[in-house]
Amino acid sequence: MSLPAASMPLRVYVSRDASALALGADATARAIEAVARERGIAIDLVRTGSRGMFWLEPLVEVEVATNGASTRIGYGPVAARDVAGLFDAGFTRAGAHPARVGPVESLDWLARQDRLCFARVGVTDPLGIADYVAHGGFRGLRNALAMAPADIVKVVIDSGLRGRGGAAFPTGLKWKTVLDAPVTQPAAGPQPSKYVVCNADEGDSGTFSDRMLMEGDPLCLVEGMTIAGIAVGATQGYIYLRSEYPHARRALDAAIANAYAAGWLGADIRGSGRRFDLEVRIGAGAYICGEETSLLDSLEGKRGQVRFKPPLPAIKGLFGRPTVVNNVISLASVPLILERGAAYYRDYGVGRSRGTLPIQLAGNLKRTGLVEKAFGVTLRELLYDWGGGSYSGRPIRAVQVGGPLGAYLPESQFDTPLDYEAFASIGAMLGHGGIVAFDDSVDMAEQARHAMEFCAVESCGKCTPCRIGSTRGVEVLDRLRAGIDRERQLALLEDLCTTMRHASLCALGGLTPDPVTSALKHFREDFGISTPRE
């Protein structure tokens, strides 16, 4: 027998995303429970992922009935000391309060987004199987279980999904290569013949979408990896997780356990006769292990160093077997594609950049957080319409897109649309979708030096151009900034960058010149150079 509506506990939502926790969300949640208990108010406190509006965290949402439908009213930021006042103001009935932001789903910042991958993040209980299923979860996997592997791969190819980890390689083509790869190595006992590996070693500056997805909707990643395994004939998956993500690890471990218990993982997935097993493995704490072959070496228990290619990991990857290596967002995009079809996903975006990209706004901005938008939105729109301009109130002078190896873009390029080819045409890259903004107080010569120093510290050491070139690059930039024989240093730096770009074994050394040369091109005055670059 169901309880009358008046006796149902009030549902209150507070994020347990790492960013919200850092801002005091746990203390706020405890205070809500304590005050409700003192006042005899029955509540059902649900800990969710973050909506991505970090300037409002800790964000508290209360579910109220409006015209026969439930609406979630938001209040934020709410510190523990604010909770009693929130109850005094009648927040349980959506009462007025300085922190009240109104119906969360109707907020312009959220309403103008295209939330496909992040549709459940901030909405559902991240670990609840029933909540996940109620919000569309496992529909894609159900469809996949009824399909032939080649048909699953074709759907992913037709969707236009490209890798969201930086290289933007077509996801479906990588899967097809693994599916078609012959397994020539002799089996060693029960060792799987093929693998699916998730690269969750999110290490680029200004990026946090992987973490938010894993903490806020980990079952989506579980589902995406399981679909990948069925598609290519792999029975074992590993999530290679950044060591600095303890909250994500707990969420993933719990989600995987719940998926096993509900029959969505294991030897006989939902009675289909298909098998897929999944584990979390913790990374080595090295930036280079974000490169797929270094990751595989680390996963095998070796020192993380870049492998020579060929052979590609899709042919000879983990333990010498054909292996799919995809980023978190790539894999988490797959369930929706299998649920709604390739055309649905492909209809978002522009040119060869299909679907959506979770864009992370960081640095000197008023409103930092995560925006999921179809490809084609411009940097200027993101920086001002969503980011609100600089936090300092000063002009935004430069942005770096794509992590520590991304080019620095000046204000004259802020109208560039987020599109892989459009960014390549201006010598930049989208990478993982992280945007770090700088106001006009930034020293771009110092930023260029930071890029070279970062490479020197994080190099795996296997190739000379990266290992030695980055160290010499720091020295050249120091002499250039000190005004020592500037023309000679400029010529030397140009030669050094050319060597690193074309002779490095992987993208760490090959892309390090991009922030340096872009800073020199657009911000020469910071290097003490008055002549324009040709």
Automatic annotation (TrEMBL):
The keyword 4Fe-4S applies. InterPro entries: NADH-UbQ_OxRdtase_51kDa_CS (IPR001949), Nuo51_FMN-bd (IPR011538), Nuo51_FMN-bd_sf (IPR037225), Nuop51_4Fe4S-bd (IPR019575), Nuop51_4Fe4S-bd_sf (IPR037207). Belongs to the complex I 51 kDa subunit family. CDD domains: TRX_Fd_FDH_beta (cd03063). SUPFAM superfamilies: Nqo1 FMN-binding domain-like, Nqo1 middle domain-like, Nqo1C-terminal domain-like. GO terms for molecular function: 4 iron, 4 sulfur cluster binding; FMN binding; metal ion binding; NADH dehydrogenase (ubiquinone) activity. Transmembrane segments: none annotated. It comes from Dokdonella fugitiva. Keywords: 4Fe-4S, Iron, Iron-sulfur, Metal-binding. This is NADH-quinone oxidoreductase subunit F. Residues 445-490 form the NADH-ubiquinone oxidoreductase 51kDa subunit iron-sulphur binding domain. SMART domains: NADH_4Fe-4S (SM00928). The keyword Transit peptide does not apply. It comes from the Bacteria. Gene3D superfamilies: 3.10.20.600, 6.10.250.1450, NADH-ubiquinone oxidoreductase 51kDa subunit (3.40.50.11540), NADH-ubiquinone oxidoreductase 51kDa subunit, iron-sulphur binding domain (1.20.1440.230). Its cofactor is [4Fe-4S] cluster; FMN.
